[in-house]
Amino acid sequence: MARVGFLGLGNMGGPMAANLVKAGHEVRGFDLSGAAVLAASVNGVVAAENMADAVAGCDVAITMLPAGSHVESVYLGKDGLFEQSARDRLFIDCSTIDVDTARTVHKAAEASGHGMLDAPVSGGVTGAGAGTLTFMAGGSEKAYQRGRSLLFGMGKTVVHAGGPGSGQAAKLCNNLMLGIQMISVAEAFCLAERLGLDGAVLFEISSRSSGSCWALTSNCPIPGPVPASPANREYEAGFTAAMMLKDLRLAGQAAASAGAAIPLGTQARDLYERFVEEGHAGLDFSGIIKMVRGNAEW
Ligand code: NAD
Fold this sequence. Notes:
It contains 14 helices and nine strands. By secondary structure, the protein is of the alpha/beta class.
């Protein structure tokens, strides 16, 4: 069993750290929010005083932070994790961040003699609590083999996506598909409504036809066909529209930096931007059907 330092005990990190405790690891956790540390300590995470205290003497340090700027400030620089730590520690960043920052952090890890994985997740807060997350890991084969079993303590699928930054690349590409697909499913249901076609009937047909996708079969944007989907609870998230917008922005940034064209991704980002600006940041991303339905003039 490993000694784990865990930084970022929020909606995702809190339950992930708790699952590592359940799997038998010794976890010392820190978060800037005292309430998050307290909640994690109820689940057996040892409350650390600060970042250095959390990672002191650990085998592996895990971060689950809001964005690239937080990851940069925690890892890099004079007071950063790499400088503070003994050599040859494994660091796993599970946050969703931009590919360029992930690669910069990998380079700094290598220069300081540490192992590193970028390992963002899919599965949301529900998957984090249930320990069923999917991890997409980027880094060397050696780092992957070192971190793999620990990741299985928090998830049920772990894939080595490739070298440094490949985990983030996989996450952004996946959520690019998801964002576009959700809008396409919403448009199809709104068109069906206008054509007098019952949504439940469209679901019955499309869920078994070529239009089928996760946005339809697991997160259906109309109430009824999929009882667990947020549409049945007034679009209570789930995966928020703000998170989807964040990921589509990251995909746009990655596409610009790599010279790839994502015209539908750009449109999807603009639509989520508008949805969020209209005050729906906290709704599940499937709630965008309300905006699509309300704009028949498009
Ligand atoms: P969150 O805001 O609930 O948690 C992030 C935590 O990091 C906060 O508690 C914050 O106080 C803490 N933090 C920030 N800077 C810190 C520092 N320097 N030291 C210690 N703690 C610090 O966010 P979340 O929903 O848990 O998401 C975390 C990451 O996971 C994000 O990158 C997000 O994009 C990604 N993600 C979230 C979901 C989801 O459904 N929530 C799904 C997949 C991926």
